[in-house]
Each structure stands twice: as C-alpha cells, then as structure tokens.
Amino acid sequence: MSDDELILAIDQGTTSSRAILFSHPGAIEAASQYEFTQIFPNDGWVEHDPEEIWATTLKAIKDVLTSESRDTRAVTAVGITNQRETIVVWDRETGQPVYNAIVWQDRRTASVCREIEAAGHLETIRSKTGLLLDPYFSATKVAWILDNVAGARERAAEGKLAFGTIDSFLIWRLTSGRVHATDATNASRTSLFDIRVQQWDEELLKIFDVPANMLPDVKDCADDYGHADASVIGESIAIQGVAGDQQAAAIGQCCFAKGSLKSTYGTGCFALVNTGDKMVLSSNRLLSTVAYRLNGETTYALEGSIFIAGAAIQWLRDGIGIIESAEQSEVLASSIETGEGVTVVPAFTGLGAPYWDPDARAAILGMTRATSRAEIVRATLQSICFQTHDLLAAMHDDGVKVAALKVDGGMVANNWFSQYLADLLQLEIDRPQVMETTALGAAYLAGLQAGIYKSFDDIAANWKLDRSFQPSGVDNSVQLSRWSRAVAAVRAFAEV
Ligand code: ADP
Questions:
Q1: How far apart are CA 329 and CA 324, in angstroms?
Q2: Which DSSP state fits 104?
C-alpha cells in the first residue's frame, strides 16, 4: 500500500459503536462514535437492540468514509472488533433478529448454568473451552432465545435461523447476507468451541442445546471475510481482520511474544497474557482463551478480569461526590505521603478473577478520625493495583512468567496510578502513545491479510512509547498483607 492508503477499523463496544480510519503507521486519521441504548428489561438482564447497533455502526462508518480528513485517500481493508460473548439470533431469509442482542453482562441464565453444573458437565466444558461455566458466555444465551421466542426452536431445526456474536452479525449485514462467519477469538468465548482442535464441538452443542446449523464458519483473525457492499457503505471494501475486543487490544499493544501482557483499565480491567502455542489450563480460575489464530496456527492466552476499575473512580465522583473529576483522583492521591492504612475493596458487583465471588460487596476499612477524602481516593486507586497484583500472582502460579506490562484504557492517564502499579507489581509499566489499542488491533489484522504489513515485526515497529514507569524497589509486603486481610474480611462479611 502506498503510505496514503487507509484501513477502516470498526469497534463495536458495549456502550458505543465507533469507526476509525488508521494510516499505515497506525495513526488515527478520522474517527466517529455513537452511543446506543442499554436495555434492562428485568433484574440482571441486559440487552441491546441489534438494529440500533447496526444503525450506529453504519453511521460511524459513513462518517469516516466521507470525512474531510480522509480526503481522496483509498481505504484498502476493513477490520472488525467487538464486545465479546454478546449474541444475536437472526432469520437467514430476512436478516431480521428474532430477539434483542443478549449482552455479556446478562445474568438471566444463572440457573441454567447451575443445572448444567449439577449434571456434571463442568470438567468437559473447562477442558475443551478453557472457560468457566457462567452466564457471561454465549451458549446459554442462544438457548434462552430458542426456548423463549415463540417458534424459534422449530425454525432453528429447519435451518432458518443464524446465530452470531456481534462481529458475525455485522459481517452478515455488511456483506448483504452473503457471509456468515466469525473468527477464532470470538468463537472461543461461546462455550461451544473446542479451542484445542479449533472446531465447534458436538458434545458441547448437545450440553447447551444449540443446533449446529445455526453456527457461523470460524476463520483466522486475518482472513478473507468477503466484501462490505457498496450498496451498504457506499464503496466496496474487503473485510480482512476480526477479533474480540480484548484480543484486539492485545494485538494493538503488540503482545506477540510469549509472556507479554496487556492490561486495559477502562470501566473494568482485562488482563491478557500470551502463552504461546500451548493452551495453559489455569488452576486459579483464570480463563484460557485464543489470543489470535493466523494461518491456521493458534496462539493462546490466559485472561483475568476485574469487574470494577475506572468504575470505582466514577463512584467516587458520581456516587458519593468526593471528587469532581476523574483527573482529580491523581491530585488527591499525590497530595499525601501515606494512605495511613486505609484500604478499599471495590467489590461493588462481587469479585472477579481469581476470586469469582459474586456475593462479596465493597468496603472501606481502617479509617480513623484523621481520614480524609485523600486517603479514600488513594486507597481506591491502590485497590485496582492490588487486584492486578492478585491476577499476576495467579498467572505466575499457573506457570506463566510475565516480563513487562503494557497498559491502556482511560485510567492509565493517571500517572500516580501507573507509578503505583509499577511499584506494587515490581514490573516496568509501558504506556503507548495510541490508546485506541482495540481498534488499532483490528486494523493491524486487516492490514496483515491485505499485505500492508508483512509480519508482526512490521507491526511492532509502529508501537510507540508514551511513558514508561519503573518500579522503585520499595517493599510492599505490609500493604499486600493488609489487602489480603481486607479481601478476606469482605468475603467473610458476605457469608450468611
Ligand atoms: P470504557 O472503554 O470502559 O468506557 P475508558 O477506557 O474510556 O473506559 O476509561 C474510562 C474510565 O477511566 C472511567 O471509568 C473513568 O472513571 C476512568 N478514568 C478516566 N480518567 C481517569 C484518571 N485520570 N484517573 C483515574 N481514572 C480515570
């Protein structure tokens, strides 16, 4: 590609749909983003309207393709990244969804998961998919639609319905229904895909009661997914890269070497470490997943998620109003020398990996009359670092050696937080210049397939450091011990 050709990345997230045009060196040339409605029909239920997902995505795509900053430059390829595990079931003939998208956060199938566990299937699921049995993953959501939408099971049996994660649904729409495909990373989050042999699995399909004829083809992350139609987006462009959002972020962060780790600190925190060509089955309730699949070769990852990261800062601002802006958390944390032992456990929605304790709730421990908002704010920032420490300890215990940590997401703009993370983990923390790592990863995959990038080395040359945080070498054992006592305390409090 000549240097003035562009790649279109579509980043269909949980709260917004965005489109970004990237240049060959990975710079943002145009961007557009639209939020869409979060639908909460019942306690613990979360849905999106697939038509709104489609409309906002299409609008963002058209915005960047017709933007002034694009000028007359050609757009060579499309990459797609998406909120993972969220599913749509649609009619193959009309392309119409039969129900809203059921979102990854949705808990409606908790009892189904308990039944499947009681029937003794947990080990089969763990060993084949690398996942836990939880409503978070796609399979039970698909079965729920089939069992709760009138006539859906019969139509599925007749081969009239298609299922897909959001990438699949977008590919179907972009190609006017010609292509029904997904990539290996998205497939790996459904609970229906055996990640060891890279195939949909009959036994899993039976356990979750999902018919095989609904499934998309599973392709490499850099592959030919057909062309987005000129009649749909205004010009015909090849779709050549697909990956789920966290995997795309790892690619955008160039985590291509075994042991390279990225951690994204947005609303929640997702850490992914590349484990090479071996699927590492965790003994610490981390997930084994597909990092990427290229030329038929699978690279695996271990993943840990922390439910609340930046959301705790939002709570300080919007919930109890002790800060006016997220940025102020840095000013307050830096304003004191020590936290005086105040410890926050931000378990507002339970604790994620490696605890997976849905019943734990948040607490502030160790306050005295001298405690001010600065100590509470500082302890809240620290709590996200402590949780990262626990994730890394779990990875270490699973035999994965982490060399350095690349970070991204809104929270790492906070220098105090990033430095504390380096000090606590005793690891170098690297923050890149381009923080849109998710969209960038999708663009890189499309660029690989289009031949714009020849290799990972070519892509890695694009990664530019904004700032590196070096560990100070201070002893953190007192803080860590206090943190584990605090976690034990909130978990004990939750027991009834
Ligand atoms: P998402 O993609 O999940 O919406 P972002 O990556 O945009 O999240 O990050 C937004 C989150 O980062 C918010 O929860 C916000 O509270 C937090 N945040 C933003 N700036 C700062 C800051 N300077 N210090 C601490 N947290 C911050």
A1: 9
A2: T
pLDDT: which is higher, 360 or 8: 8
Q: Residue 410 C-alpha to ligand 1 middle, in angstroms? A: 4
Q: Is the pTM of this model over 0.70?
A: yes
Rounded Cα gap, residues 168 and 152, in angstroms: 19
Q: Is the Cβ atom of 411 under 6 angstroms away from ligand 1? A: yes
At 123 the pLDDT is 94
Distance 385 CA to ligand 1 centre (A): 15
Best residue among 14, 411, 420, 436 to mutate for probing ligand 1's pocket (most ligand atoms within 8 Å of CB) is 411
CA distance 486 to 483: 5
Name residue, tokens 């005295």.
368
* Residue 294 phi, psi (nearest 5): -130, 135
- Sequential DSSP letters for 406-463: EEESGGGG-HHHHHHHHHHHTS-EEEES---HHHHHHHHHHHHHTTSS-SHHHHHTT-
Q: How far, in Å, are 63, 107, 192, 296, 453 from residue 446 at the CA level?
A: 20, 34, 26, 16, 9
